[in-house]
Amino acid sequence: MVVADAADVQPFHSIYLVDDDGRQIPLFEGVLDFDDFHEWCVENEESIKAETLPPFPVRRDESLSAAYQRAQEAAPYTGLEVADDDPDFLYEVLVDEWGEAHTLAWSREWKLPGISMGTGIDGPEISCEPRPPDDDEAFTGAEWRWRYYPVNLHEFFEWLRTEHGSTRVYTAN
Asked: Which secondary structure element, helix H or strand E, spans residue 18, and what is its range?
């Protein structure tokens, strides 16, 4: 995955994958505070790299983003006050914590589609699922449904640590 500075004047960036042949696969282009993005990645690196599977079911051939969205929709107590020891509430907390640590737009309220990074059934992946129509009209079309795996998340985080100003990192195996 790559985050490339498209212009020094404004915080406009491109996020893209680079395949084995050097082709760029665009994931997102738009305004993004790179320092904030970098901070989120550093804060969540260990969670993203260490987890083997999320705390919710992921179906065969389902992206992490789609499984996360399905788990959110199935959470029974969203917005309600409940006892802290209720198993359904604890499941919802686990789902929310996973989203905060693995989905780019979740905790920072960035104007991004629901891009998730982590390990799914088929290995490390980056994926996106369109948001529900009433959530954010900008990211509701079929073009926001994609999944790339396996990706080299370790290499991406190494790039962030060592070459913060670099314009690309190879993630396709």
From this structure: strand 12-18
Is 169 among the domain residues?
Answer: no
- Assigned domain for 167 exists: no
Six-digit token string for 163 = 């070459």
Q: Does a structural domain hold residue 97?
A: yes
| Residue 173 in domain | no
124-158 pLDDT, tens per residue? 999 987 765 555 566 666 677 788 888 888 888 88
Q: Which domain holds residue 6?
A: 2-162
Q: How many domains does the chain have?
A: 1
Cα three-residue angle 96-129-111, rounded to 5 degrees:
75
Q: In whole angstroms, how far apart are CA 152 and each of 26, 68, 123, 137, 161?
A: 16, 21, 10, 31, 15
Q: Across the chain, which distance is largest between two alpha carbons, in Å?
A: 53
DSSP H helices in the chain: 34-50, 64-74, 87-102, 153-162
Contact between 160 and 153 (Cβ < 8 Å): no
Helix (H) / strand (E) element for 120: namely strand 114-120
